[in-house]
């Protein structure tokens, strides 16, 4: 349905996107991951036709949209990371306003507004001012605006940032329903790996403006098929112990979420003796040690050197 070919964008002295290639099949949900500054937002702007590329192409159903951006704008819905609503209007008035921007015929507009309010679960709050809404409700209305013109493709840029778990779950279920019941193709970015695990068929990982890994969840995890993850929980995390762990020759990556430490090491490496020896030397009390198969988060850390939320 959509193909990005050798797409690049340079801003003065910065190369924000460098030869990105990716594709979306009709009806897929595809994750686009990367730490801050990886080039995700610029890539989304290029696909959305908001920014003109330095080189490369974006093809919608085998037709370039670079010279004719209206082709993608008609079938694209975008849920931006920032709330893009009018706080002093009601939910219904916001949807009607954006519906007119989409040039939805007057005779169809009220029906579509009601349909969208039902999808996002805000029918009973349609007459309320948006400024009275919780963060989760605003996020849901943000999604509703993107659905008004019945898009074939929707880009969702971190749609669950800063909201409560209940609203987050509602949004995830809504995205899942839109994909399965309405066959809407979704490009989804998030700082929460569990969301990507739940929603996405395939994943692209970006860093420093480039795609550094792509595939299904299983294919991405296979990058560390010869590795194992060792999670160490300590009573008090000491800097000396952490430094000694980092110096071990078989430790490929290390991440810290105090008081837990996660190491990525080769499966053949037997370093448990070293872990306890170093703990004894630094008087570090180990509470538990778990050896697990690497997760998507572990692979992301291995590839980028950073956690997804960094």
Number of helices in the DSSP assignment: 11
| Strand arrangement, major sheet | 6-7-8-3-9-10
* Radius of gyration, taken over Cα atoms and rounded to an integer in Å: 23 Å
What is the CATH first-level class name of the largest domain?
A: Alpha Beta
Secondary-structure class: alpha/beta
The total of beta strands comes to 14
> How far apart, in Å, are the first and last alpha carbons?
32 Å
Give the name of the CATH superfamily of the largest domain: P-loop containing nucleotide triphosphate hydrolases
Architecture of the largest domain in CATH? 3-Layer(aba) Sandwich
Q: How much of the residues is beta strand, in percent?
A: 25-35%
Q: Quick check: average pLDDT?
A: 92
Percent of residues in helices comes to 25-40%
Task: Summarize the main sheet.
Answer: 6 strands, mixed
Count of distinct structural domains: 2
- List segments where confidence is low: pLDDT < 50 over at least 5 consecutive residues: none
Characterize the quaternary organization of these chains: single chain
CATH-derived topology of the largest domain: Rossmann fold
N-to-C SSE string, H for helix and E for strand: EEEHEEHEHHHEHEHEEHEHEEHEH
Gross geometry: globular
Organism: Cytobacillus solani
GO molecular function, one term: ATP binding
Protein name: Antibiotic ABC transporter ATP-binding protein
Pfam family, one: DrrA1-3_C
């Amino acid at each position: 349905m959509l193909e990005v070919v050798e797409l690049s964008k340079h801003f003065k002295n910065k190369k924000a996107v460098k030869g990105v290639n990716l594709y979306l099949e009709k009806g897929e949900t595809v994750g686009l991951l990367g730490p801050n500054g990886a080039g995700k937002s610029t890539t989304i702007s290029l696909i959305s036709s908001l920014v003109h590329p330095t080189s490369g192409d974006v093809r919608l159903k085998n037709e370039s949209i670079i010279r004719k951006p209206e082709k993608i704008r008609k079938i694209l819905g975008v849920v931006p990371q920032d709330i893009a609503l009018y706080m002093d209007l009601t939910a219904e008035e916001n949807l009607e306003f954006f519906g007119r921007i989409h040039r939805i015929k007057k005779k169809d507009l009220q029906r579509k507004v009601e349909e969208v309010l039902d999808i996002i679960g805000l029918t009973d709050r349609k007459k309320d001012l948006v400024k009275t809404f919780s963060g989760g409700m605003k996020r849901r209305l943000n999604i509703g605006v993107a659905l008004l013109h019945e898009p074939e493709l929707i880009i969702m840029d971190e749609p669950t940032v800063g909201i409560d778990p209940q609203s987050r779950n509602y949004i995830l279920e809504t995205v899942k329903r839109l994909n399965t019941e309405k066959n809407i193709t979704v490009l989804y970015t998030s700082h929460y790996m569990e969301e990507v695990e739940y929603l996405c068929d395939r994943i692209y990982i970006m860093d420093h403006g480039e795609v550094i890994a792509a595939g299904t969840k299983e294919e991405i995890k296979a990058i560390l098929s010869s590795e194992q993850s060792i999670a160490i929980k300590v009573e008090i995390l000491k800097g000396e112990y952490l430094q000694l762990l980092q110096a071990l020759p078989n430790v490929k990556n290390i991440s810290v979420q105090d008081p837990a430490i996660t190491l990525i090491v080769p499966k053949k490496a037997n370093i448990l003796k070293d872990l306890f020896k170093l703990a004894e030397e630094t008087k570090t009390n180990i509470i538990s040690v778990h050896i697990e198969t690497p997760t998507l988060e572990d692979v992301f850390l291995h590839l980028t050197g950073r956690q997804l939320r960094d």
